[in-house]
Write a structure and sequence with these properties.
The complex is a heterodimer of chains A (632) and B (591). Chain A has 25 helices and 2 strands. Chain A has helices spanning 3-21, 29-53, 91-107, 116-135, 139-148, 150-160, 165-192, 196-202, 220-235, 248-256, 258-264, 282-299, 308-315, 318-343, 345-350, 352-372, 376-396, 409-443, 454-457, 459-473, 479-494, 496-520, 539-557, 559-600, 608-631, and strands spanning 68-76, 81-87. Chain A has a two-stranded antiparallel ribbon with strand order 1-2. In chain A, strand 1 and strand 2 (81-87) form a beta hairpin. Chain B is 71% helix and 1% strand. Chain B has 25 helices and 2 strands. In chain B, strand 1 and strand 2 (98-100) form a beta hairpin. In chain B, 58% of the residues are buried. The chains are: A mainly alpha (632), B mainly alpha (591). At the A-B interface, helix 5, helix 6 and helix 7 of A face helix 22, helix 23 and helix 25 of B.
Chain lengths: 632, 591
């Protein structure tokens, strides 16, 4: 099967199956539910079958560093928008997580009894949006999928949610839309300042050595028009026409080689040499990074734009909470790692303290807020804010600076920790929300103070719950531990203070989770509302919780074999590239400084100084060469 | 003027009907031939009025005559082939009164397509009764004719005439429901406002004409440019600016731009949803085209245009015709510019001379667009009547669409291809807007027929009764918000992209400000559109609601889907329509 068929089927199968679903009469509730469940299972089967069982997804060697299964078809040539998708070590685990959690969430959807048909249609549309976000490599396509999720989510919360569902739904919608409007502005800024012609000249296809053209998946047509443009420029003097692009990979290369691209471009007329300058300048990257980061931080969610999350979670029905916490939040993290850092390294570099501070504040604030909650689900929701703070922090610890001789290892660890945290949290938070949902379905309240003693009435359920909550707590041997410890360790090199704070959050986490476990499951026999309804868990519930717990244990015990090995190569490459970008940037800055000094100098003696500077900046280069040589 | 009368008449004949000898033999590129769609509309109007004089004619339903007339007109306009363009330059028709270029073709296509859809819509909703039919359809076609003229006006007199031709039938249409007080009130308000705005505009035209000695837009730009280059005295600047502002008042009234929007919500509430659809779509589209014509007419030097009736340059060149074309050109310019016999070459201005005009107009329009857009969105919050809500939404959308114009003006000289893309963005927005807004009013009209109410609160729980219509209206409303993958996003994206391109290539900060305002407005507009959706989809159905029938499987339902599907499916491949829009923009700018 060709790449385009495979990935298109994965993304659009759920959406297309809604057309079939529309023809099932709405009173055949069981048929509709099973049909939807089968669709999610088919998606899971295709992803597992094609990528893991069939050994299709490469995680070792040169291939694993770059996009796999990539294809590029033209879509809207007049805006250079392409139907471009692909998968690498960053998106692959998230795709698997999406397929996996959606099956479980659909399994948990048997508790939905109102308008089942509408629910299932929206659920499948949501699934298409989520898969599309993780697979899209064209910025425009990414944005479309990003927004496609909004509508189903709004209705899923607003129609099937709790008492304040309408408020929660519109809050969710509004926050995300505000974020995505900022993102749209950033997308347009980046698009109109991108120039593939300049990039082509510094790539191996155009005779340079900075970029491997093949890895960018630029379509044949565009490559041809680039060469035609260069040809006509050569023949007719110049009238340079930049070729803009939405290709995320090309944009990343443009962002990381902005100065080289700028140098490769012809200059404009003498009166206005900057006229044709069309590159991702550092100023532009700073702004674009900020706008994009805010857009993604809304989704993560980070303090202070997190307030939609507790409301949305509390009001959303259980399966939608599972999707929301398990997958939707990961899109924010994914956006940061896939878009913010590679495309706008300048912004990331200059704003690293801002990003890390946001991460740490989210962790601390989320943990304290969770401690203060009386509502079980709200507590779990705030724990998500806290846990996703680790993701932001892990992505932001840019410790590969001059101070560490551009050693990317710690940052690498942080990014891997963040990625692992996303996967681990996807499992544990989905599990926690499911567990809350199970008991809510029975007693119809979530007041932590009115619980207690569930242990006596629902033995299996309690055992599974405690396992899942411990996974959320970050107990060693369970999935929450690996991500947290990676992030905390990586922060040491960046800032011991932040490391101490983030390590301290682990204690707070243990505090609120253990306290909740104590108040809900332990203690005297339950005497609260709807006491009679506390029947033991059903097979379906045990199955879902059991599967989640098994994966939580698997990820905790064998993290490398289950998760990390798939993402290693890609993350290594990305972080190494950014580390050498940092170094290159410092060299450029030093050279500029030296040049300035040389120009200022009037006495011949001062020529010595710039020479010294240039030798001293060469030292780290040599160092890096040795280091990369030894690791490969 | 040493011109032989015979020669002048000869020129006029050639200009009107081409080189051909026989009376009924028109050259393919004569004014009359290129004006054929409008002529067909005229014929249809006359037929509508005459048919009921005869007994046999009374049997013919007026809607059928109007429909066939509009369809024939659309067929002759044939934008889909005409835009593929066998000619690369525009024509000046009727000695420069009108301009026939790709934008004319595009806008005329949109307006006539809308007219066809609109007539089908009125037929389905059954608003004109048997006696009224002929009157109403002749008014609709008359207004459409005026709008087509608005889109192709090249002369300030023509601007005024076209504006009135489009407005006067609209005043009557607003009072369509005889015997309803609100309808009459709406019509009266509309016509009083309209008359005021028209008077102000006419005064403005006379001021500008007095200073520049001409009302032919391209000539005005040339004169203005050379005057500015020579140094314009302060008082003349004052008069020109005042005249320009007054012309702007007339345009702003038509666009319902703040602060000339007051008529809009009242008229929309009083008039029927059908008329609202007509006013909010066709009239707005034509007004935008006219705005573009006027600001580009004043702010840029018009590209060279062909004279009608003369063999195309592509044909084997004849010295004779070339000379004749030249002669005709001179004749036209003398007609419009009696003060100077000919513009001496040293007086010919450069495009940069008009820079201040563009900058003034661009900033003014940007300011008004920001206010219009923000005000429309904020005022829509408190509305309880769906028609009033859509009226404010129309105002807001006029603001979004006006945002393209400053981008066009900013890039007109330094980055003509960017300016063309901005025009194309506006054209794309208009195309999408036709389907979205017509769809919204169609559903409002059908629901009014079914539940006899236009209050948003009465839509509660509609999804239980007619899910199809609720899904369609929700999609249309989300499309109006501008959420991908619905078509409304495409228009917004194209205009926002042009704003950013303008900011990037010219460094004009206010374009970026426009973009930010547009983006924030998109977010705040979500609230009120979403409220309607929420009422329909989430609120419980009122118990006392009288039972009503609105089957999803019906002609009405099919029509609604026909309008909704483009908003969903356009995303899949909008390259074709985008190419057409870009084509539409190619003949507006010089160079």
């Amino acid at each position: 099967m060709s790449n385009i068929t495979l990935l298109s089927i994965i993304v659009f199968l759920p959406a297309l199956s809604t057309l079939l679903l529309a023809f099932i009469p709405k009173d055949k509730v069981e048929v509709i539910r099973f049909f939807t469940l089968i669709v999610t299972l088919v998606v899971l089967a295709i992803t597992v079958g094609a990528f893991i069982a069939g050994g299709g997804f490469q995680y070792q060697g040169e291939e694993a560093k770059y996009m796999q299964y990539a294809f590029n078809e033209g879509w809207i040539p007049s805006f250079n928008i392409e139907y471009l998708m692909g998968m690498d070590g960053i998106s692959f685990p998230l795709i698997m997580l999406t397929a996996f959690v959606s099956v479980l969430a659909m399994g948990a959807s048997w508790s939905i009894t109102k308008h089942v048909k509408g629910y299932c249609i929206l659920f499948l549309l949501l699934l298409t949006g989520m898969l599309g976000v993780f697979l899209a490599l064209d910025f425009f396509l990414f944005y479309v999928f990003w927004e496609v999720m909004l509508l189903p989510m709004y209705f899923l919360i607003g129609v099937w949610g709790g008492p304040r569902r309408e408020y929660a739904a519109i809050k969710f919608f509004l926050y995300t839309l505000l974020g995505s409007v900022l993102m749209l502005i950033a997308i347009l800024m980046i698009y109109f300042n991108s120039d593939l012609v300049g990039l082509y000249q510094i790539s191996d296809a155009g005779g340079g050595n900075a970029v491997k053209w093949q890895t960018l998946n630029v379509s044949e047509t565009v490559t041809n028009s680039i060469t035609a443009e260069l040809e006509s420029r050569k023949e007719s003097g110049y009238e340079p026409q930049p070729i803009h692009s939405f290709n995320l990979l090309a944009l990343a290369a443009l962002g990381q080689h902005a100065e080289a691209v700028h140098d490769a471009q012809p200059v404009g007329p003498e009166s206005d040499p900057e006229k044709y300058a069309c590159y991702l300048s550092s100023n532009l990257q700073w702004w674009a990074f900020l706008l994009l980061f805010i857009g993604f931080a809304v989704k993560v969610p980070s303090v202070p734009v997190h307030t939609w999350l507790p409301d949305a979670h509390v009001e959303a029905p259980t399966p939608i909470s599972m999707i929301l916490a398990g997958i939707l939040l990961k899109m924010g993290g994914y956006g940061i790692i896939r878009i913010c850092y590679p495309i706008c390294p300048h912004g990331g570099y200059e704003l690293m303290w801002f990003v890390c501070a946001i991460g740490v504040v989210s962790m601390v604030y989320g943990a304290f807020a969770a401690l203060a909650q009386k509502d079980f689900k709200r507590m779990v929701a705030y724990s998500s804010v806290s846990h996703m703070g680790y993701v932001v922090l892990g992505l932001g610890v840019w410790s590969a600076t001059a101070g560490t001789l551009y050693n990317p290892d710690y940052w690498n660890m942080g990014v891997k920790g963040a990625m692992f945290q996303m996967i681990g949290h996807g499992v544990s938070s989905a599990g926690m929300f499911f567990m809350v949902g199970v008991v809510y379905d029975r007693v119809h309240h979530r007041d932590l103070d009115k619980f207690g003693g569930l242990f006596g009435k629902m033995l299996v359920y309690t055992a599974l719950s405690i396992g899942v909550f411990f996974a959320g707590l970050g107990l060693p041997g369970l999935c929450g531990f690996i991500g947290e410890v990676f992030v905390v360790l990586s922060v040491w090199r960046f800032s011991p203070l932040l490391a101490v704070i983030s390590a301290g959050v682990v204690i707070l986490t243990a505090g609120y989770i253990l306290w909740a476990v104590q108040r809900v499951y332990l203690g005297a026999e339950y005497k609260g509302p709807h006491e009679e309804a506390l029947v033991p868990s059903t097979f379906r519930e045990r199955l879902i919780a059991g599967v989640l717990l098994v994966f939580a244990i698997l990820f905790g015990v064998v993290p490398h074999q289950t998760v990390l090995k798939y993402m290693d190569a890609t993350i290594d490459r990305q972080v190494d590239e950014l580390a050498s970008w940092t170094q290159h940037q410092d060299i450029l800055a030093a050279e500029a400084e030296a040049k300035k000094q040389r120009e200022e100098a009037t006495e011949p003696t001062s020529i010595v100084a710039p020479l010294e500077t240039s030798t001293s900046v060469n030292a780290p280069t040599a160092n890096l060469l040795v280091r990369t040589g030894s690791t490969e | 003027m040493e011109k032989d009368l015979h020669q002048i008449v000869d020129h006029l004949i050639r200009d009107t009907k081409g080189d051909a000898g026989a009376l009924w033999d028109w050259a393919a590129n004569s004014s009359l031939a290129l004006f054929a769609p409008e002529l067909i509309l005229c014929v249809a109007i006359v037929l509508l009025l005459l048919l009921r004089l005869f007994r046999a004619g009374q049997l013919v339903p007026p809607s059928m005559v109007a429909f066939l007339g509009a369809l024939a007109s659309l067929y002759f306009a044939s934008p889909w082939t005409a835009l593929r363009g066998e000619f690369s330059q525009g024509y000046e028709l009727f000695t420069g009164m009108l301009v026939y270029d790709s934008l004319t073709i595009y806008m005329r296509g949109i307006l006539l397509l809308f007219a066809v859809m609109f007539i089908v819509f009125t037929r389905l909703s059954g608003i004109p009764d048997k006696e009224d039919g002929a009157d109403i359809y002749s008014l609709v076609l008359g207004a459409t004719l005026g709008m087509c003229l608005m889109a192709s006006a090249n002369h300030l007199l023509m601007v005024f005439m076209a504006l009135e031709m489009a407005s006067v039938p609209s005043y009557v249409l607003a009072g369509l429901m005889k015997g309803r007080r609100v309808g009459s009130e709406a019509a009266l308000k509309y016509s009083v406002y309209g008359a005021g705005a028209a008077g102000v505009m006419l005064y403005g035209i006379s001021l500008v004409a007095g200073v520049l000695n001409t009302v032919h837009l391209p000539t005005m730009a040339t004169v203005l440019g050379s005057r500015i280059a020579a140094g314009l005295p302060g008082e003349e600047q004052m008069v020109l600016a005042l005249g320009g502002l007054m012309i702007g008042v007339g345009l702003a009234f038509k666009l319902s731009a703040v602060p000339f929007h007051f008529w809009c919500p009242d008229v929309f509430e009083g008039a029927t949803a059908e008329v609202n659809a007509f006013l909010s779509v066709a009239s707005k589209a034509a007004a935008l085209a006219l705005l573009l014509r006027v600001v580009l007419g004043f702010g840029t030097l018009a590209p060279d245009r062909l004279s009608p009736g003369v063999a195309l340059p592509a044909a084997p060149a004849q010295v004779d015709t070339a000379w004749e074309a030249d002669e005709l050109h001179r004749f036209v310019s003398v007609m419009h510019h009696p003060g100077h016999d000919e513009l001496t070459p040293e007086l010919a201005p450069a495009a940069s001379d008009l820079g201040p005009v563009r900058s003034f107009a661009g900033k003014l329009i940007a300011f008004i667009a920001v206010i219009t857009c923000t005000f429309g969105n904020l005022a829509a919050y408190g509305q309880t009547n769906i028609k009033r809500l859509l009226a404010y939404s129309t105002i807001a959308h006029a603001g979004y669409m006006m945002m393209a114009v400053p981008a066009v003006l900013a890039m007109a000289e330094s980055n003509p291809s960017g300016a063309e893309h901005a025009v194309a963005g506006l054209a794309l927005y208009i195309f999408v807007y036709v389907f979205m807004n017509l769809g919204a009013f169609v559903i409002v009209a059908f629901l009014r027929n079914a539940i006899r109410s236009e209050q948003i609160a009465d839509y509660a729980g509609l999804i239980r009764r007619s899910p199809g219509i609720v899904i369609c209206l929700s999609l249309i409303l989300f499309s109006l918000v501008g959420l991908p993958p619905l078509a409304g996003f495409l228009g917004k994206f194209a205009i926002f992209a042009s704003l950013l391109e303008g900011w990037q290539t010219t460094g004009q900060g206010y374009l970026m400000a426009l973009l930010v305002v547009g983006g924030l407005n998109t977010a705040i507009s979500l609230f009120y559109y979403l409220r309607v959706v929420k009422v329909m989809a989430m609120d419980p159905e009122p118990e006392e609601r009288t039972p009503f029938e609105f089957p999803d499987v019906s002609l009405q339902g099919a029509y609604v889907w026909l309008l909704t599907l483009p908003t969903i499916l356009l995303m899949l491949n909008w390259n074709g329509i985008n190419e057409l829009c870009r084509q539409a923009a190619t003949q507006l700018l010089r160079g």
